[in-house]
Amino acid sequence: MRIFNNTLQRHLVTRGRGVNYRRSLSTLITKNGSDDGNNLIVIGSGIAGCATALTCAMRYSIPVTLLHAGDSLVDCNSYWAQGGIIYRNPSPGAGDSAEGLMKDVHRAGAGLCLNAAVEKVAREGPRRVEELLLGVAKVPFDRDERGELKFCLEASHSAARIIYQSDATGKAITSSITRATASHPLITPVPNTVVTDLLVDSQTCHGVRALNTKTNTTSTLSSSRGVVLASGGLANIYEHSTNPSGFNALGSSVALALRAGARCHELEYVQFHPTSLYMPGEARFLLTEALRGEGALLRDRHGTAFAKEFSPQGELAPRDVVARGVFEWSQKCEDEHNVFLDISHRDAEWLEGRFPTIQAHVRERGYDITRDPLPVIPAAHYTCGGVLTDLKGRTCVNRLYAAGEAARTGLHGGNRLASTSLLEGLVFGAAVADDVGSNDTDASPCYARSKEMTTSRQNYDDVATSKQMAFGAAVADDVGSNDTDASPCYARSKEMTTSRQNYDDVATSKQMAQSLLQKLRKIMWDKVGVVRTPSGLRSAVQSLQELREEACELYERRGPTLETSAIRDAAFAGEAVAKSAASNCVSAGAHYVVDDEEDEDDQAETQCSV
């Protein structure tokens, strides 16, 4: 096999056009330090945030302030999605239906999906795609010579129902939908803005405290309409991740929710993508599920295809199954890399046209998908759990919503089906907008009191089910209670010694934040990774609690900066994931626990305690 080299290049499209795009945070603030509040605040510019903003503005004429961390609206995780988005294949021979999609989602989710959420996405999804992507955004999906949409098959799907734009579907969707978002007169995108805390009083969210990362100044934004958490997941708190570098995917939505007293649920189900490009010294580059859907095979260093040895479905098994298979085979040889993805048996010209982004990336590293097997390894990819919501995107804090990867809607269960993420963001982003626009004030939005959200966990006994349903509240109580004295880092240690560090030095505090993040990522990868043990999870909980306390102290001493805000959020999220994993007694989906050599009674106590 070839020698690996060490260059990772990122390519961002130019930012969306629109008269409001370059509004700064300061222009939204009045002389008394707050805004007028007659708007909806959306945090995040991915597909969920844009779907919320566009639906609110177009359908209900509600003004929206869209805060995003990057300089460009397309600086979001949605941009990097390669494979595609689920639609509905109308061909009589395709065998596609809402019922068929529901079965596929439940099967991939290890029997832990919430049926109401699955049905909502399966039945509403095609209409939302038509309205927002084919209609408003006019996304240039691939079409055949007759102008009809092309469909492809991906792993664990029973029908070819995914529409795509070569191997850069996320880029095509976000470039189009952010352009529509930025050009709407009622939507004000505000770049370079990180939300540091939610403003909550009497269990109602009234706005946000935000940081301008260019000027390092903070401001308070109020909202009478509500706040939407749509800033993505937390896979980037792992040492190896398919997510891009930067503030995205560090768990900001989960951290904000926990500090505000909202519930998070099923955080242990962090999906590891089975096929990221393995290049020592580089960040992991995603090799889309569509490669295996189009016939790519997993081979060992001798060229032997091995996927059928860990699943009868082979390469098309659910992601969690394939990821563990790849992980296991990678451990079989210590001296050489042992897992490769090979699609060189397909027509070379067709491959060049179908996967141009991947081909360009690997060619810069000495590979060619038309000839060479590509070295692969699992990497953290997607957060299946998140901020607990109902089917309208409402959390248990009034006027606080969550959508997209930030939310736990119940759609994914223990493991996400390929190409459901963009569709979930679209459907639930629009659902949030519908709720905001309806001014529905009936009863409480709290998930815990919503009968429609009763889960049907097929693989859990009664004890495990009740524990999991209660865990969101336990994390909120333990990690981020509503204790509003003095500090936003509610559970910090008051005895920590600070004299050894110069928190006031900008360079030093930045270096400290980066060092803590590196340490956190290694703990998550080693102890809360693809395969977990009770003792490893217990160790992770202890280490991450101490790390969170240190991150909070750094934030308080230095104040909010991009770096101190990032590590504080990542530490809250990491500890919550580890605690959620340690509390779950049952291996299922992406949460896979094997026994270690500790005493059996000690194992049971560790696994079944929060």
What does this structure look like?
With 610 residues, this protein is an alpha/beta fold. It contains 15 helices and 18 strands. The protein has a five-stranded parallel beta sheet, covered by helices on one side. Helix 1 packs parallel to helix 10, helix 3 (115-136) crosses helix 10 (421-438) and helix 12 (506-527) packs parallel to helix 14. The longest helix has 25 residues, at 534-558. The chain is globular and about 60 Å long. The N and C termini lie far apart (46 Å).
Essential attributes:
610 residues; alpha/beta; 5-stranded parallel sheet; 5-stranded antiparallel sheet; 15 helices; 13% strand; disordered N terminus; disordered C terminus
Strand order of the largest sheet: 5-2-1-9-17
Q: End-to-end span in angstroms?
A: 46 Å
Q: Approximately what portion of the residues adopt beta-strand conformation? A: 5-15%
Number of helices: 15
State the secondary-structure class. Answer: alpha/beta
Mean pLDDT: 86
Shape: globular
Summarize the main sheet.
Answer: 5 strands, parallel
Total strands: the figure is 18
Helix content: 25-40%
What Rg is obtained from the alpha carbons, in whole angstroms? Answer: 23 Å
The poorly predicted ranges are 1-22, 30-34, 441-445, 447-488, 490-501, 598-610
